[in-house]
Specification:
Elements lengths: L1 E6 L3 E2 L2 E2 L4 H8 L4 E3 L9 E3 L3 E5 L5 E6 L3 E5 L2 E4 L3 H7 L3 E4 L2 E4 L3 E5 L6 H16 L10 H11 L6 E5 L4 H4 L2 H13 L6 E4 L4 H9 L20 H11 L5 H11 L3 H9 L5 H8 L6 H13 L3 H12 L5 H7 L6 H9 L4 E4 L13 E4 L2 H11 L2 H5 L3 H10 L1 H20 L2 E8 L7 H5 L2 E8 L4 E7 L3 H4 L2 H14 L5 E7 L5
Parallel strand pairs: 1-8, 12-13, 13-14, 19-20
Antiparallel strand pairs: 1-2, 2-3, 4-5, 5-6, 6-7, 8-9, 10-11, 15-16, 17-18, 18-19
Length: 506
């Protein structure tokens, strides 16, 4: 039996990785059979009966494959051939699949970055595949389609996961990939053991890729998941773990800036910015990710027509909630189509009606930005871009911080609506308001109620007033006047529970 000494990443016996093919032939002789391992091979390999030698496209030794009658030794131990029982003893979590051994936790992933050429992305992916799956991949593969096809072929005998993040970026790299993926998936899905996970952060584009009837991958997804933010219980647990002794105001500040989005929560945790002051200091710092985060997210969504969408979102964030108000501020231009796309295509705004309003009615419709961070970003960062251009982060921070109590008080309403929904027992949770013809604004505002929650069974409801510090500015008689007004108009048959909710109730 022949014996070969293996030095990882250096050599096996007399054969060094990277050695010229001619030199191999001088050492071993040229009496070998040239062949192609598979249809993806960019070069021929040498068959020396007991082993195969694989070469790069420029004829450098890339890998060796051994068979019987050869003994491979590493650090004085025989590593090939070896019995199954010894393999299973030496390598934890080993699994046998046909004639192959694989290790548990077999997942490979890559993030698609439109700033890189396709060939560079593929090279990165190949490196990950080789390291994770310990499989041979021939050099010379430079496009994504060929690599995926190669992995699908391997997937006929091995099971593993492929995760492709920011998949929508292929629109900017090579849109043909979507058609190629359709053809490959249709060809291999019945044979391959691969679990293919595709994700992306641009909602509208991911929706288009998989739900648009005209797109190649329409109907190919076995399951579509829309990842949601952390709920209020999880946020409280995070604060308990990372900021013991936190105040409810600190919790509210975290919710106000993140809405529970894991990426943002992680940033604050990693930077130990979990108090009101530290959160604002972190957001309004010179190198803060948050300064350009809104632009980075939305310009990709909107494309070259982002200007009008930014203008609409700026006005909504600034308190102009109706179509008429926004159009008036923007000089009378019609924005109905843009509002529809923001709501239904980009999933960025929500159309709100007073509870008890008839579905489809246009009366009393308001638009709000559903994402806490984006609403904050438009109101304080994008609107005050001039501060950023002057690198005046301190004054910008002070401007936003001075408005914190007022702004967070409005966000607190959404927090309690979410908290009630998570607790369960309700069939509808919303707000109630009415438009009066009176010009008396004070009177108009008196007929707005923060939370009206209809319980799942019976004619029962919860009506709540939300105040950051109820002890400072809550007037019970005013609240009850509004409750009685709503009872008279819509809720005569309801058993109504009333509450006042503040920071201490979070």
């Amino acid at each position: 039996m022949d014996k070969w000494e293996f030095k990882p990443l250096e050599s096996i016996g007399c054969i060094k990785f990277g050695m010229d093919r001619d030199e191999v032939h001088r050492l071993l002789g040229a009496e070998c059979v040239e062949f192609k391992k598979n249809k993806f091979s960019k070069n021929t390999s040498d068959d020396y009966k007991k082993f195969h030698i694989f070469y790069t496209p420029d004829n450098k030794v890339d890998a060796l494959e051994f068979f019987d009658d050869v003994e491979i030794i590493m650090e004085g131990k025989v590593i090939f051939p070896i019995h199954s029982a010894e393999i299973e003893k030496l390598i934890p979590h080993i699994e046998k699949e046909g004639n192959y051994y694989t290790q548990a936790g077999k997942s490979i992933g890559i993030e698609i970055n439109s700033g890189k050429a396709e060939s560079i992305l593929v090279a990165d992916f190949i490196k990950i595949v080789r390291e994770t799956l310990s499989i041979f991949i021939p050099d010379g593969i430079s496009n994504f389609t060929t690599l995926i096809q190669y992995l699908f072929e391997i997937g006929k005998t091995r099971s593993f996961n492929i995760v492709i993040d920011e998949f929508q970026e292929f629109y900017n790299i090579r849109p043909d990939v979507f058609s190629d993926m359709q053809n490959l998936w249709d060809e291999y899905r019945q044979e391959t053991k691969i679990n293919l996970v595709i994700s992306g952060s641009v909602y509208s584009l991911m929706q288009k890729i998989f739900t648009d009837h005209g797109e190649p991958l329409f109907g190919r997804a076995d399951n579509i998941l829309c990842l949601r933010s952390f709920n209020t219980k999880v946020l409280k647990q995070i604060m308990e773990d990372f900021a013991p002794g936190y105040s409810n105001d600190d919790l509210l500040a975290l919710y106000t800036l993140t809405g529970g989005i894991p990426k943002y929560v992680e940033l604050f945790c990693d930077n130990q910015a979990l108090s009101v002051d530290r959160i604002y200091d972190f957001v309004f710092s010179e190198n803060s990710l948050f300064i350009d985060e809104g632009r980075n997210l939305l310009i990709t969504e909107f494309g070259k027509n982002y200007g009008i969408y930014f203008s609409i979102l700026l006005e909504i964030a600034n308190g102009h909630y109706t179509q008429g108000e926004i159009e008036s501020v923007l000089g009378g231009i019609s924005i109905g189509g843009h509002l529809s796309k923001l709501e239904n295509v980009y999933n960025l705004i929500t159309r709100e009606r007073p509870i008890f309003a008839k579905p489809g009615t246009k009366k009393n419709v308001r638009y709000i930005i559903g994402d806490n961070f984006l609403n904050f970003w438009f109101k304080y960062i994008e609107r005050n871009r001039s501060y950023i251009e002057l690198q005046n982060f301190e004054d910008l921070r002070q401007l936003a911080k001075a408005d914190y109590q007022t702004y967070s008080g409005k966000v607190l309403e959404n927090y309690f609506k979410q908290k009630l929904a998570e607790e369960g027992g309700f069939k509808e949770i919303g707000s109630w308001w009415e438009t009066k013809s009176s010009t008396n604004k004070e009177r108009l505002n008196s007929y707005e109620i923060d939370i009206v929650a209809l319980k799942s069974s019976g004619k029962k409801a919860l009506i709540a007033e939300v105040k950051r510090m109820p002890e400072n500015n809550y007037v019970h008689s005013t609240f009850m006047e509004k409750v009685e007004h709503l009872r008279h108009k819509e809720m005569a048959k309801y058993d109504i529970e009333t509450r006042v909710l503040g920071l201490e109730d979070m």
